[in-house]
Amino acid sequence: MNTIKVALAGQPNVGKSSLINAISNAKLKVGNFSGVTVDKTQINFNFCDEVSCTDYSVDIIDLPGAYSLTDYTIEEKVTKSFLQSDEYDIIVNVVDSTHLQRNLSFTTELLEMGKKVVVALNMIDEADKEGIEIDEKQLSTILGVPCIKTSASKKIGIEELQSAIITMHNKAKAPSKVIYSDFIEEEIEKLSFFLKAKKFASPLSYRELSLKLLQEDKDIYASIHDKPIWMEIAPLIREAKGHIYLHTATQDMNEIFSDEHFAFAKGAKMEVMTTKSMRAKNLTQKIDNILINKIVGIPIFLFFMWTLFQLTFELGAIPMEYIDQAFAYLGDQAKSVLGEGTLGLVVSDGIIAGVGAVILFLPNILILFMGIALLETTGYMSRVAFLLDGFFHKFGLHGKSFIPLVTGFGCSVPAYMAARTLKNERDRLLTLFIIGFMSCGARLPIYVLFISAFFDASNAGNILFLIYITGAILGLIGAKVLHSLVFKGEDEPFVMEMPKYRLPSFKLIWHTVYSQAKSYLKKAGTFILLASVVIWFASNYPKNEALEQSYQAKIESVSVEAEKLALTNELQLKLLEGSYLGILGKASEPLVAPLGMDWKMAVALETGLAAKEMVVSTLGILYAIGETDEADTNLQEQLRENISFPAAIAFIVFVMIYLPCLAASMVFVREAGSWKYLGYLFVFTTGTAWILSFITYRILLMI
Amino acid sequence: MSIFDMDIGERAKIVQIHASSELKLRLQSLGLARGVDIEVREFALGRQNVELDVEDTLVGLRIEEMKMIEVEKTS
């Protein structure tokens, strides 16, 4: 069997992934989200020519979309380095027939790679509809490589493409037919003539070699630099460049050749493409008239977002409840099977509870990502960036930052993942760092508890709103500060294509969502599991058997239920106080003392690092037993009696800003790409939380 | 004049792009180069961003990039 390795390259939004689907008939991971991963698909087929039939195994490597072979975006970097350094047989260049010229510029660059190339003129059905006619035979002659009209959606030209790949594979490589302006051709000719005269040995043709010398190709220079010919050819190259500069406005070879590619593509398009009639405004432009309209654009977008969040958090809440119950049941079962000993507790309270916490977020993630995938694949996401960029850019953010930030109000875990829509690393990191300022749903119970304990019921709604808004404003200020202190330097320019609107492909959306969910479960799951066990251990050890036994005896000796409960609570308090977590809390008391807090609040904040829900339950354990006689005293009253008003507000401020939960932190590490960023995030958020808490406390004390 | 000085619906030809080499290549790969005809489709609030029609490709730019692109109005 013959194996052919095919690199599939093309600009973004040309339908590469759908074309693979059409060729292979296989389900595979595709879509905008995978972004920088290079996917490989293997397909086998039988191909017959006039003589015989042969089996072929074709490996298709789906390269990320690139506008040109530069290092401008991560996608382009990946594509460029693959094409330059990896092993493969043929490049299949997928071209959007409705944007022929722009795509052909890229084709020209690919032709210069000196590899075998097959061009797929994709979306030919759409071009037909728009009245565009392309003479693919003529184009083949101009480019010197086969050009096949294809349509992934209408299944046109798929077999032709397959056979072109195989014919090309079995044929010797023909030299590139890209031609340049006369003044460049002249210099290529001179250099080739010299190389030929010297009978210089090279795997490349003399023309290719001369071209690469003019283009200042580093590898070629490195290889020729140590050869005797260098002494003679160096002045010739300098002279040739000098001649070229006479004709160009710049002396930057990249720019000069980019202009050449552009001109060649333009020339090729003029020769092969005809438009039947004046093209009417297409559908995309009509839709854009409404969706990015100054007046209605933003309200429409906000409505979409509102719907998405309603779905995410309302619809998502339904399965979450069941998941919660299922894991509680599983935990109980584990306890009854394994006993209440160490093993049973590790499994139920450590492992099962930890895994449960991971899976709990899955419905949210699935729904939200379905929504985001929908925004991405329809082409609406670029419009969102367009609409909001003006505002967000003032804070050093990008228009696309909006979605992760708003998601942060629901839950930081999907929010961190949503930041992937930001292609630029600096924009993405900056967004990741301030997502925590958007108060997530799990912090709500803490706010509610403290607001109802310290404020009048009629004011509760306003205070809650104030907390959320303050968080968001602090986040934007934080972004501005980080942008001017840490992520400084020139801003990435905002140059983006607004792709055509397309109907969503459900296959595509499903695979995006599926791969998201899988990677979340796999990576976040393992870390969270481990960390949950550690935290469980820290809050349960060292064991104090003597204390437990003495309390057990006391509990059994009293008959009143309320007293039993009080004693149980007291036992838990003592146990927690003596645990590693309690020891840590006590040790960190001096740190929170300037904020008016005691060790109990410190412990609550520390358990909050695991999950914000735990803050309330920890406070419950730590405070609900102040006066053992009044076991029915509710937590709110206890808090009011034990915590001063300034300290309570300082506590709220601290909770608003400090590190999100463990699950979110783990996802943060994965999305930011390094553990060191978690260190920075910890210092940044905790530092800010402490300082603002301190200021709040001191000001309130003075009033 | 630059794209920043144009109005919605106006057409123009690009005369010169005053940008770094890297950005120039980027703009060119999206079709924005000397001699190309463009149409302003829409500005975002405060002219912070623009949507251009460049030979049927819709391209979004920020205010900084708009000011770098020198154009000449065509009717």
Please tell me about this protein's structure.
The complex is a heterodimer of chains A (703) and B (75). Chain A has 703 residues and is α/β, with parallel strands linked by helices. Chain A folds into 4 domains: 169 residues, Rossmann fold; 94 residues, Helix Hairpins; 197 residues, no CATH class; 161 residues, no CATH class. In chain A, the strands form 2 sheets. Chain A has a 6-stranded mixed beta sheet with strand order 2-3-1-4-5-7, with helices on both faces. In chain A, helix 20 crosses helix 29 and helix 31 crosses helix 32. About 3% of the residues of chain A have low confidence. Chain B has a single domain, classed as Ferrous iron transport protein A (FeoA) (SH3 type barrels, Roll). The longest helix of chain B has 9 residues. Chain B has 75 residues and is α+β, with helices and mostly antiparallel strands. In chain B, a hairpin with a 5-residue loop joins strand 2 and strand 3. In chain B, strands 4-3-2-1-5 form a 5-stranded antiparallel beta sheet. Chain B is built from 2 helices and 5 strands, in the order E-H-E-E-E-H-E. Chains A and B meet through helix 3, helix 11, helix 12, helix 16 and strand 9 of A and helix 1, strand 2, strand 3, strand 4 and helix 2 of B. Strand 9 of chain A pairs antiparallel with strand 4 of chain B, so a sheet runs across the interface.
Key features?
heterodimer, A: alpha/beta, Rossmann fold, Helix Hairpins, two-stranded antiparallel sheet, 32 helices, 9 strands, 65% helix, B: 75 residues, alpha+beta, SH3 type barrels, 2 helices, globular
